[in-house]
Amino acid sequence: MIGQVRDVPLSGDPASRYLPWTVGLLVFLATLAFAAGMFLASAGDTWRQDLSGTLTVQIPVSDKADRLEQVNAVAELLRTTPGVVFVRPIPDAEIAVLLEPWLGKQVLELELPMPDLIDVSVARAADIDIAALSARLAQVAPGTVVDDHAIWLRRLTEFTLIAETISFAVMIVILISAVATVVFTTRTGLAIHSDVVEVLHLIGAQDSYVARQFQNHTLRLASAGAAVGFLLGAGIIWLAHVYGGKLSGGLLPELALGPGQWALLAALPVAAVLLVVLTVGITVKRVLGKMM
Amino acid sequence: MNALANGVGDIVRFENVGMRYRLGAEVLHDVSFSLPAGSFHFLTGPSGAGKSSLMRLMYLAHRPSRGSISMFGRDVSTVPRTELAALRRRIGVVFQDFRLIDHLSALDNVALPLRVAGAKEGQIRNHVAELLKWVGLESQIDDKPTTLSGGEQQRVAIARAVIARPQILLADEPTGNVDDDIAIRLMYLLEELNKIGTTVVVATHNESLIERFKHPCFHVEDGLLSGPGVGVRNDRDPGGDQ
């Protein structure tokens, strides 16, 4: 950028004083919103990958004696069903782990009546008639239910997509707020220093020369604010990663961002500062454009 | 009132120029004149007559509401905005209130036209220091304008106006805030600049200066470039050489 001498004395402006704080706060919020958006996108992908092409067959509680026989019969029928590529009865211990967040570690000791579950994978191209399959399974083991994950996966996908969109929209709104704040600050600075700006203009300064005076000043302030805002935001994301896993109880994917996502997140304050500096340049040039 | 000359090489040429501020009444009417390169002119007239407005038009601070203005042979209405800055750098201005930048030292104030023109920092200091010495301010080079006297501020303003070797120097009431001795020294300074080829226009109320320094004189009154002043003093062609 330009030389050491600052022709326009912007440092003492009251409006400038709050700029680092404002930019810092907005970058902090934008960092969290962006991270939330990326996390939801990742979580959605994980859920889709985990659940697409899977079914869970639930055999209702029955006599201990019949139980194993029924499960095997249902599993066998499933294995012979066209499109089914994998069938695995889920052991009681695994079911207990799934129920642990609600019923505690001693769930098996409680001897609660629990349904049997069978994990089923189907080929991607397979178009299985779930209703017909349910009817056939019910003949082997009355009351058997086929839980098609596609239905709630679709709802979950819709939900994550909406939440993701809201997160990114919030981030955009925050960046727009940053732009509006900077436009106001710049216009205030131009009004306060109109005499100096006019002198520069009249002695032959190009608009870009005057704009750079404001841009350099804003770059210094906004960079400091953005760095602090980003570091605070990153700290909170890290804390969420450390403590989030303990709270989610295995229901949510890990609250963690990959290296690529961290790189994108780190680009956010840089992009915010560039946006702010660009906004300052455009604002100054637009105002100066009204002069001869 | 018409001092228009058709000479080739006019630095300034006004043709039927009118000027108004925003939607207000016209403050200059049908102004037509030209200034040949290397000329020296006074511009006189009562307060509010339009002297400063005429100067503003000449240093490209304001567009005329009608008529045409040519600077250095170019019609300013057709000059792209980016090139107007380059035209302004060929014009040196001593503002009525000096318009020095308070937080900058005398050196940095004088260096401004060089900096905006993109001169290298290494070359600026020596060049500016030399000029400040020429105007007798070598010991105040790092002083801020607020610590300088009126006469010293004025010399800084003149140094700033001439540092980039402009082709025309416009001085709006440059002697308004100084005593007669300093005013006379200032006029000698301006004459020296004129001798090395700078076209000079001095807007002033100071009758004694006009009497002492025999240069052609324009008179503005009620927005017209005319009046007894021109008739009385304009024994030489205002657009002609000195």
The tally of helices of chain A reads: 9
Shape of chain A: elongated
Strand content of chain B: 15-25%
> Which runs of chain A of at least 5 residues are low in confidence (pLDDT < 50)?
none
Query: End-to-end distance of chain A, in Å?
Result: 26 Å
Largest sheet of chain A: 4 strands, antiparallel
For this structure, the quaternary state is heterodimer
Structural class of chain B: alpha/beta
Main beta sheet of chain B: strand number and arrangement? 6 strands, mixed
Describe this structure in words.
The complex is a heterodimer of chains A (292) and B (242). Chain A contains 9 helices and 4 strands. With 292 residues, chain A is an alpha+beta fold. Chain A has 2 domains: 173 residues, no CATH class; 83 residues, no CATH class. Chain A has a 4-stranded antiparallel β-sheet. The mean pLDDT of chain A is 85. Chain B is an alpha/beta fold and 242 residues long. Helices cover 34% and strands 23% of the residues of chain B. Chain B has a 6-stranded mixed β-sheet with strand order 6-7-8-3-9-10, sandwiched between helices. In chain B, 48% of the residues are buried.
